[in-house]
Amino acid sequence: MSSSSLPTRQRLSEVRYEIRGELARRARELEAQGRTLIKLNIGNPGAFGFRAPEHLQRAIADHIAGTDPYTHQQGLPQAREAIAAFHKARGTPNASPERVFVGNGVSELIDISLRALLNPGDEVLLPSPDYPLWSAATILNDGRPVYYRCDPDNGFLPDPDQMEALVSSRTRAIVLINPNNPTGANYPKSLLERIVAIAQKHKLLLMADEIYDGILYDGHQFEPIAPLAGDLPCLSFGGLSKVHRACGWRVGWAVLSGDPLASGDYHHAMDLLGALRLCANVPGQFAIEAALHGQDTITPLCEPGGRLYEARRALIECCAASEHLQLVAPQGALYGFPSVVGAAAAGFDDHAFALEMLEHEDVLIVPGSSFNVPYRNHFRVTLLPEPAQLREVFARIDRVLARRAAD
Ligand code: PLP
């Protein structure tokens, strides 16, 4: 830092968000030079030709004239009613409009919900790999991420005994991402029940990032954790970005469930933090009720013949055909998280590999270590491109890995 430059928050040096980091910046430079890139770094349906459903667009257009005032800090009443009804139908205990928080995407609510909870040095149990905003928000709200491992040899599922062994007197919450980004793991009911039991025993808040709840393949069923948690305070996160193909509208929600008496102070803290930022984007909130009626979601595209299903099939087939790749087939969400194995894995550095793919093969992928894992032989791609384009990407990946294996 030169003596004239502005100071920045020190803990930012611990924070990484490489999905939009150095490699993405380099990609923009290359594009400015005229290169055509295949960018697989962001799970952004709109960037791959997926449009938000028309009836959601209409719901916003029909109400745009009335969206000029601020609304309640927790969200528009009719939107919160629709979210509470959706959760009640799922069996979420004590879900009510008063316990719904609408935010500018789940992203904002992740930050607010951790800020409402943490004091300096408090610990949060996070999955490894994680969606890196969870680590970043924990750190920037003065907490300490403590990672429970979700390893590929266990289908990227956590081991509840290992999870419980990490609980300390400073632990405040368990975060789970289900279905998972980046691994695609979908947690079975028996595992969720074990996680609930740990949270109950140690009086921890459950924070369930379920933004991919409608994106499952091959008959896998999504199991929400809140209905299993009974009186235990639980925050369940969902939104319009993925299942409803409307990332840019910035609409997400969090539902507080369990015994209201056990989370009254926390509710007030969330409400206060919501009030300090006034309210979430109002026009987008008019689409929530229409969205939760369940028509025209992304879900049918996960069935055989559907675009996402076929992209996932391409991923699975390409990895199976490669002697350099191994894959735990994703059961849900929008990503593949393969590992590099065999001769190509010797001395492998996921960043150097991602940079080589960008500079020499015009493909932008995300290095696995961006997701807070201790190993460096994974990478993430999104399943959103056309299946044929994904096959082309894997041909290029295999070419680079074959070269590396031969070196
Ligand atoms: N949680 C997970 C697991 C995600 O993958 C994402 C976005 O990719 C988010 C939260 C943030 O979503 P939103 O667009 O609602 O802010």
UniProtKB/TrEMBL annotation:
It comes from the Bacteria. SUPFAM superfamilies: PLP-dependent transferases. It holds the Pfam family Aminotran_1_2. Its cofactor is pyridoxal 5'-phosphate. Its EC number is 2.6.1.2. Signal peptide: none annotated. Residues 37-397 form the Aminotransferase class I/classII large domain. It is an enzyme of class 2 (transferase). Keywords: Aminotransferase, Pyridoxal phosphate, Transferase. Gene3D superfamilies: Aspartate Aminotransferase, domain 1, Type I PLP-dependent aspartate aminotransferase-like (Major domain). GO terms for molecular function: L-alanine:2-oxoglutarate aminotransferase activity; pyridoxal phosphate binding. Belongs to the class-I pyridoxal-phosphate-dependent aminotransferase family. This is alanine transaminase. It comes from Luteimonas gilva.
